[in-house]
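dumping these here so i dont lose them again. two proteins, back to back, each one seq then structure tokens. dont judge the mess
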Amino acid sequence: MDNNFSLNVSQIPIELKLIMEILKMEDVEHNQVDIKEWLKDINWELFLELTMHHRAYPLLNKKLKKMDENLIPPYVIQTISQKYMMNTYQMLHFSAEMEQVCKLFDNEKIRLLFLKGPVLGEDLYGDVSLRTSGDLDFLISINDLEKAETLLSNQGYVKDDYIQTVLNDWKWRHHHVTYFHSQKKIKLEIHWRLNPGPGKEPSFNDLWERKRICSLTSYPVYYLGREDLFLFLVSHGARHGWSRLRWLLDINQLARQEINWGSLLKLMKKYQYFHVGGQALFLASQLLSTPVTKEMKIFIEGNRPKRLAQAAIFYLEKMVNLHNDPVPNEIARYHKSHLFFLMSRKQRFFFIMSFLYPYPEDAQTLPLPNHLHFLYFLLRPLLWAWRKTKYHALS
């Protein structure tokens, strides 16, 4: 692959291509003539389904308002407008809760950094209503996790205790836990890592030192520094296969801000995300016309960023939803392979080595008293082989 390489997007639905074309338009009133050819064979029901799936309706609503009303069916515009209004109310609701959580945690001397939600809407788009969010994600030190759980329980939040663990593997195999408030209808995700392990990433203290303050609220709300935010967003988006366009739209917006690309380069290389950053920038430049500056070119040089970007097109072709179980076998197999493909050599080494560490399934297969759990390190190969043999026998 050379510098003239272009992504093969021939299998992406034309409806999704139309969505991206509209989103790319800088001057809608003057450029809408260019999309008339796209409108001939559009399945508008699929157009709406894709708009909702990719969480693109806030930005799309803004663009459609400036277009000739005769180009798009009225019911399509009305549906998107209604979803936009609902999202606006939700984001305002989240903003108020975000401020309350900050006050609550600050009173107990717990530092927290918001990762997504209203802070991204304000920072990347200049308006909380222009980005969707299903929950409030924030990061705290793992040392404050127990105190945070008590605080939230006292406020009526209930923990979704889905994590099974043995020998404290949850600390590095997982990266967040979920709480839900039944009356407020708000879900909180408390992170103690940016990404699930094994893998190296910035410490909470380092992230805190580079934090920024959000201008959205009267009470101080902190979130990631710009370079740390880029690392988090590209690692998160890549881990989900860029299966929602919203995550690439975030990269498109962030890449247009004043990033210290030299510092970012060091950060991405240190934590083994350089190639993933290249994937994100190449996807954004090809699909959303994100400008590639001189400082950004180093990330997308060579074949690997382009191969990774092409591999991610699969998720756009299939309208993949990785959040709803059960994930179809074809998708699950591809995603498992793609995640391994994304890893650096060092990350692959630690990933493979992690299989030697006991899993909760080992304790379920052969329950042992807590003081004997260290034996799972020795027994794991036998327990794994037993489960595989039993599975094949049942099959």
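---- next one ----
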Amino acid sequence: MMDEMLLQERLDQFKPEPLIENDIDSTKENIESYVIQEDENNIDLAKTNFLNLLNNEEIQKSCEGIIRKYGVGTCGPRAFYGTTDVHLKLEQCIADFLGMEESIVYSYGFVAISSSIAAYCKKKDIVFLDKEANFAIQQGVLAAKSKVVYFDHNDPKSFRNEVEKVTKTERKPTRKFLIVEGVSWKTGKLLPLEEFLKVTEDHKIRIFLEETYSIGIYGDEGKGLTEHFNIHPSRLDMIIATLESAIGSIGGFCAGSQMTIEHQRLSGSGYIFSASLPTFLVQACMESIKCFGDKPKKLRSFAREFHGFLEENCGFIVESDPDSAFKVFTVSNEKFRREGEEMIHRYCKDKGVHFIVKENGLLINLNVVLCDDEEKLQRIYHAIKTASSLFETSFH
């Protein structure tokens, strides 16, 4: 047997190479973080509580009843003691809501996106991807090891050009996939879905639509881009989304044909190996969908009003779609853009109006409840307008 001193010496000498390169300089200690206390002095525009369902007492009571019956977790993956009748009801609820044959629910939104992509796209396949594709999509394609062909952001002409280039040069037909976001996580721009569908149908390309920031917002019933553009869901191979934005819970789902979904029950790593979504959170999703009502329509109207305020009253450049529930915007002065954004963010934070400053601009997540709270809304408008005026005075 190896003595303890020799073992410890060898352990000390063991310095394995990292599995991936980490080029991030920031540490946990120097990343700014703080808790927003939602009260009369603070307004939270950072949280993705678009339809105000996180504060719904009826949903909370329903979840409490589920906890008393099922406990707080199943302690197992879906295929191993992790599936309850409530999980199956949610999957049917989502499929019926979106007009798809079936759906599958994952316990984590990020994994729902990445796992569903990796379950279908393989090494020999070609995946067409937007240059601004979100991180979850990129990780799914990375896991699949497929060949990736990028096209310009939300540009169907650029997509068609790339498809035609690939078609001309390939020696034999190859499986092709298009993976797009209904509303971009990065820019908030709306996908011109019909134009992309024309290309995929012309060239027999499978299309996966990621709808995290469009379901619950677009379409009068909140069904997303298919309802918004009056497109039959059967024209899409798969709709993927997290349950962590408008629906206000945890997890994610994929919806599609019976064959498409059944394949994931055997090939979706996040479904097979992760503990299932706690049953009370499953219940929260079902209750949230029932509570949509006229909220999507009301929220889009508010989003357009807020969009106009940012552009016309404050002079900001707003990148996101007018109907988008989250606003990505920046100052018009490119020379002092970063300094201006940080100054505006800091000023509003001091005034109790909290939102996010990112690399590509400022980000505000709207809440439909603000439509009926004129006092809070005017506080938001006043803080942002004053901050923009101070920036113009300081940096003009």
